[in-house]
Amino acid sequence: MIVEVRGLRKVYEGKQQVIAVDGIDLNVEEGAIYGLLGPNGAGKTTTISICTTRAIPTAGTVRIAGIDCVAEPALARRSIGVVPQYNTLDRSCTISENIYFHCLFFGFSSADAKARTAQLLEQFHLTERVKSYPSQLSGGLAQRVQIARAIAHRPKVLFLDEPSAGLDPQSRIAMWEAVQGLRHEGITVVLTTHYMEEADELCDRVAIIDHGKILVEDSPAALKSSVGAQKMYQLHLRDQSGSSALAGKLGTMEGVASADVVGDGVRVLAHGTDGLLSEVVSAAAPYGLRDMTITETSLETVFIKLTGRDLRE
Q1: Could you report the per-residue pLDDT of 133-154, keeping only the tens digit for each?
Q2: What DSSP assignment string belongs to 178-210?
Q3: What is the Cα–Cα distance from 162 to 99, expressed in whole angstroms?
Q4: Are residues 194 and 246 in the same domain?
Q5: What is the number of structural domains in the chain?
Q6: Whole-prediction pTM value?
Q7: Which of 22, 118, 125, 8 is nearest to 70 (CA)?
């Protein structure tokens, strides 16, 4: 395993103790794209911070390519590339200089640094912006520069913390393509995200995390199939007083996996829609059905089944 995490725990002491990470175990295979999926505040960024030597754990161990990140942080950093949540490009340098100086910092000769910079600028389609400064770049372009810089010293593992946060859909897709292209270089990728589509599109395996704990871990396809349903109905009622009764009624229907009271109505997980939709509507109408949405089973459905709440909460 290229990334091994055992019993990872991080507690912030203060007036009120905060347990950010609570006993996480992870194994990431070499060459994989691995995702930590969960809502804001779940412990994803803290986990990445410890793995990249930016934070010290309260307990537990992290090994990157066999190197203990706590005992030998300087050595571990040679195998690690990091793209944090926020733009950390040097604003006083061009994008070319940002990559070039990064190479020098990691011991490249001037000639090798220039060659590696030119290679990365071409690889990430940045040659036309070689003399641009970070302030002149869109969010998507800046993110590509950050990824290029992070892998300039040829790390074994690249950590991406919320890589598509703040990007428009087109820039997000371009970023996904850049990340998928890293497979050809043999770089293992560990990313955090609260976008279920991102985890589903990019990751070979996903760990769903909440309140500092891993709730479940598997491939996206396996996680979605574990729900035992293909559709999710969200029933919004005018009056919530009948929600419990409606949930009980719907839960007994053939084809319904589960029915639970949530928010202003009832959430139903079902095996399909053939013949079921009209039955659900008929059953809900006397309870003041105001609106209904139907979605495909997703990684968010898995999270909802595990926690009873939306991933975005």
Answers
A1: 999 998 889 999 999 999 999 9
A2: HHHGGGGGT-EEEEEES-HHHHHHH-SEEEEEE
A3: 21
A4: no
A5: 2
A6: 0.85
A7: 8
